[in-house]
Amino acid sequence: MTKEELWKAVLGEMELSLSKANFTTWFKNTSILANEGTSVIVGVPNGFIKEWLENKFHKQILTSIQTFSPEIREISYTIGNSLPQSNVKKDFSQFITERVFENKQPADINPQTNLNKKYSFDSFIVGSHNELAHAASSAVAKNLGKAYNPLFIYGGVGLGKTHLLQATGNKILEDDPTKKVLYIPSERITAEIVESVRNKNVEELKSKYAKLDMLIVDDIQFIAGKEKTQDIFFATFNELYGKNKQIILSSDRPPKAIPALEERLRSRFEGGMIADINTPDFETRLAILKLKTKQKDIALDENVLGYIATNIQKNIRELEGALNRIIAVSQIYNKNLDVKEVKKLLATYLSTPYKKTTPQLILKSVSDFYNISPNDLIKRSRKKEVVRPRQIAMYLLREETKSSFPEIGQKLGGRDHSTVIHAYEKVKTEEETDEITKQEIVLIKERIYQSFDK
Description:
- By secondary structure, this protein is of the alpha/beta class.
- Helix content is 56%, strand content 10%.
- It has helices at 3-17, 20-27, 47-68, 92-100, 131-142, 161-175, 186-199, 202-210, 227-242, 263-269, 282-295, 302-311, 316-332, 339-345, 347-351, 359-369, 374-378, 384-401, 405-411, 417-433, 435-451, and strands at 31-36, 39-44, 74-79, 151-155, 181-185, 214-218, 246-251, 273-277.
- The chain is globular and about 80 Å long.
């Protein structure tokens, strides 16, 4: 059997086990480039499909190949429809080994500070909508604990608050690596406090926070209504403030508009600098898109970028989401999209803010994408092929429906809220640092959006 005949037979089996959309997405323009002895090299059109076949379909492809060629033991994947010239003279088994054991770059997160190194002042686009918040953050970075303390930044979802907070922390560490900085979402603080109360080591937790030079708390509004959390945070705030240690907080609204927030905390939050971030104007949105494409080393037509900047106005996160969607489709089908194609691609995306998705729809979209049953997401299975989709589902339930962590845990088999928090933060970090995860989420959202019109 020739390599062409072998791959045709494999594709026939794969087509029977997958939906038409999945088969076309992952196996179009693939082929066997080499077949020697016990090893096979499969050519794929781009890096996204390469990673997907390696991580999702590898076992199924190997099983199928062995049905027709039992001697095959190894499969590797390479981008292109021919072997790279540099590898033509290379020993075949050496090429296989290099491909099979190729490692992904780890997420660039500092485990001690929780800061992501990709967030910097250099990559933050300043416009009229955020110049006050940026100026205040820069001043804090230059004069820690003395310029504006606390610094309270507020604004809507996806406008760049997290970027600015983390950029400030990264700048502090860049100038003085000995500084003790911690970035933490407020719900993580709540979880740590609940755990410390349960284990009767609250003082130990307070001591940990008291040793910091800078405490950065994202989405502080979520501590409202949580009496014990507010008590301990109040004590921590006073401890740090009394030592001239820097405190930076973010929220989706100003302190006076946070309901169920204790007055003593509201007073502390309003005692420093309050800066807001608003919706970016067209010029800023276009500048952001150009920066993102430059960072991703991807060229898009100026008219395409202009169309996105004109029609995605709500926030930066949606802006980048639309861009990621276009890039994913462009890479999957290996073509440059024009404005007409982009307009069609974003049609459902642009209408989704007016339509509310449901947990059931999200779970179905995730399970369909990963080719598993929705019940698998709820069961107690710890299989790798189920754990990963379940974490993605938790992340999307939080992002798309704004459900609380306990509510999400109940929807997915009664899991503890701390499990959901861990999954959410893990996937969120991967979406920001790993291109494959980002594109997976783009494609799952595509399914969700398309289902609105069915």
